[in-house]
Structure formats: C-alpha cells, structure tokens
Amino acid sequence: EEATAAQQRAADDADRNARRMASVISYAGEALDQLNAKGKAALDAIGKGYEHAGYTLQNMNRALAEEVRALDGAAQAEIAAAGRLEKLQAAAAGVGPSADQAREALANLGRGGGAGIRGITAAGEQAIATLEGIKASAEQAAQSLADMADGFRREMLQIQGDQQGLLEAEHEDNLRRLEELHQASGDYGNDEYNQAVARANQLHSLKLKQLREQEEEQRRRDRDSAGGTAEDLDRLTEAAERTQKALSGLAGVSLSGLAGQARDLKGHFQGLNELL
User: Fold this and answer.
1) Does residue 38 surpass a pLDDT of 80?
2) Checking CA distances to 114, which of 19, 65, 104, 214 falls within 20 to 30 Å?
3) Where are the alpha helices (DSSP H) in the chain?
C-alpha cells in the first residue's frame, strides 16, 4: 500500500508539472522566441517556486501565466530600447543639429552604461555592450582632457621657473597613483598603502628642503657676485684717475725727465690692463 501511494503521488506530481508547463508553453509571447540563454533560464525558472507552495492547479496556472507575460513584456521593452539606440547611433553619425542632439542623447544614455537593461535578449546584450562602450569612450576622453590640462599647467610652471610648483604637481601625481593602486588592491593593501603615502610625503618634504637650500645658496652667490663687481669698479676708477694724472703731468716736462715719466705711465697702464 505504501508503494502504491508513493506511485500515485509521483503520478500526481508529474501531471501537475505537465499542466504547469502546458500553461507556460500555451502563452504565445511576442518576444519569447528572441530570448537568449539568460532569458531562457529565467523562463525555465518560472513556476519552480510554486511546486511546493500549496497552490491549487488553477491558481498556479494563473500565476505562471502572469509571470510569463511579465517576462515577455520585459523582453519586448528591451528589444524596443535596442531599436531606439540603433536609431540614435545612425542619427549621431550625421551632421547638423539633429546629429548633435543624437550625440548628446547617446552621451546621456552612456553615463549609466548598461544599467537598467537585463540583457535577456540578443538585442539587449548588444545594447548593453554599446552603452558600456560609449561610457568607456567618454571616460577615456575625460581623462585625456584632464591629462592635457595638467600638461599645460606643468609647461607653464616650467616656463615661469616655478620649481616648487613642479614638485607639488609631481607629489600630487604620486598620491593619485597610490590611490588608484589602493582601490585596485582593496582592503588587502591598506598597510602597504599607508606606508607608501608616508614615504611619498617624506620624499616630498626632503625635495622641498633641498630646493630651499639650493635657492638660498644661489641668493648668497648672487650677493657675493654683486659685491665683487662693485669692488672691481672702484679699483678700476682709481686706476683710471691715476693714469689721467700721469698723462696730464707730461705737459711742460723736460726731455731729460721724459724717460722716467714714460716708465711711470707704463706702470699705470699695466695696472689698468690687469683690472680690465
């Protein structure tokens, strides 16, 4: 008797499952034939939650039909969205105000990537890939613009001779790269990240200190050079005055004393030449 009852239960389960699947298959959905592997898996999963839920056969069939219709509606909406996306792409390839509007619309859609699309149809999968590609291209373009702006800033600092500004820009780059690596490593790299940031800050401080010392040394040399130049000018002026006096002394000099005056004058010119 127990075996007979088990057989009867199995037969009832099989009959119930057959009726359930017949209810699912009997719904002629407009987009169900375009479901991909993901969509078919969703269709196959419908109704499994009702197997042991205690529903009457009629209520179970009604619930199954409603879920199948919902899946079909989602597939239709996905296919329609993919069609609108294709039209936008075609319009964006043109020129004029319409093309500009289409490109702007694509950029707005691309910001979310494939969010909001389940990808249960081949058209939906393609739409997701397209939107993800638009998003990636936009992000790459934005990064390129940021890199160009940073490059212009560095070039301006170089032209202006702002060494401290260049060091600050270099330090910002180092910290940004460390942050990117930290995000990629997750919690596994917390200690290493903190240590790297501390070392980067120490290195930056040492470079700034070295720069200040170099600038101070250059200012000292400039002061010494300016002082030496003033002293040389003073000596040159004195030598020129002595030479002028020697030349003016030639007037009215007798021939017998001319040789001595010439020797004195030669000595003055030699001293003047050394200073020059």
Assistant:
1) yes
2) 65
3) 2-26, 37-45, 57-92, 97-110, 122-160, 163-185, 190-248, 258-275
Gap between the Cα atoms of 38 and 28, Å rounded: 19
Task: Please write the tens of the pLDDT for every residue from 177-189.
Answer: 888 887 777 677 7
d(CA 78, CA 34): 11
Eight-state DSSP code of residue 252: T
Closest CA to 91 of 101, 81, 80, 78: 101
39/31 Cα distance (integer angstroms): 10
| CA–CA gap between residue 137 and residue 250 (Å, rounded) | 91
What the block records as the tokens of 5 is: 């009852």
* Rounded-to-integer distance, Cα 51 and Cα 215, Å: 83
Q: How many CB atoms lie within 10 A of CB 97?
A: 7
* The overall pTM is greater than 0.90: no
The structure tokens 């199954």 sit at 64
Query: Which amino acid does the sequence have at 150?
Result: D
Counting Cβ atoms within 10 Å, is residue 176 exposed (0-12), middle (13-18) or buried (19+)?
A: exposed
User: Which residue, among 114, 118, 115, has the nearest Cα to 36 in the 3D structure?
Assistant: 118
DSSP assignment letter at 116: T
Backbone angles phi, psi at 52, to 5 degrees: -120, 25
CB contact set of 81 (below 8 Å; sequence gap of 6+): 117, 124, 127
Q: How far apart are CA 82 and CA 70, in angstroms?
A: 18
Contacts of residue 226, defined as CB under 8 A and 6 or more positions apart, other chains included, come to none
Give which of 117, 145, 143 is closest to 130, Cα–Cα: 117
